[in-house]
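chain below, 250 aa
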Amino acid sequence: MPVLEVRDLRVRYNNTGPEILRGLDFSVEASDFCAVIGPSGAGKSTLIRCINRLVEPSGGSITLFGEDMLALNARDLRRMRRRIGMIFQEFNLVNRMSVMDNVLSGRLGYTGSLRSVFRLFPREDVEKALELLARVGLSDHVNKRADALSGGQRQRVGIARALMQQPDLLLLDEPTSALDPKISRDVMSLIRDLAREFDVPVLCNIHDVQLATEFCNRIIGLQDGIKKFDGPTETMQKANMEEIYAMEVL
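prediction:
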């Protein structure tokens, strides 16, 4: 059974506006590292944010871990979001907080905001955060403020924070767009290795097609809110790329 099933997904931001997503169908399996590619404005980021209802679909269905995401009330939605780790384009860290506190914020769904204000995290959470920071190469930066880090280091904090949730699905929203090419490759390699290590599937909106083909086992190609390709990375041909990016000069 797929971890995620999307059927006839549609999104428009107002009643008279155009559809941003137009009838998308796809699924994500437990072993997938799935890239969503396409030109700017294709609906990639909107799609990622629909999965955990940061954007509300206007039609269709999203079944996650066997549950209908669009039927969940506020309480059940909070419960489900605990199971979804998200890594953002702009890192989404609290700059004035330390690296350690930013990583521990990944446990807010379990600990609660009041306990977090007073840093009353269980010992096992602190130990887990230290292990993750070591795993992403930031053991020497635990007490630094987040705004004292480089872009690549900040994204590594974001990765560790997402994994602190012990997620069953990772959503990546342009995780490398603010990074230079070498750091981008390092970050994608780290995410792939950690996804395998923690046995968690990934759905990744990414602008860099080369990174998508290098690190992802499956690709979904969007153009103007419509799916143009969906299959294993090795089956994507030049003709598929030309169709996905038909409205752009490659």
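The two ends are 37 Å apart (CA to CA). The beta strands are 4-12, 19-28, 33-37, 59-64, 67-68, 84-87, 169-173, 202-205, 218-223, 226-232.
thats it, cya
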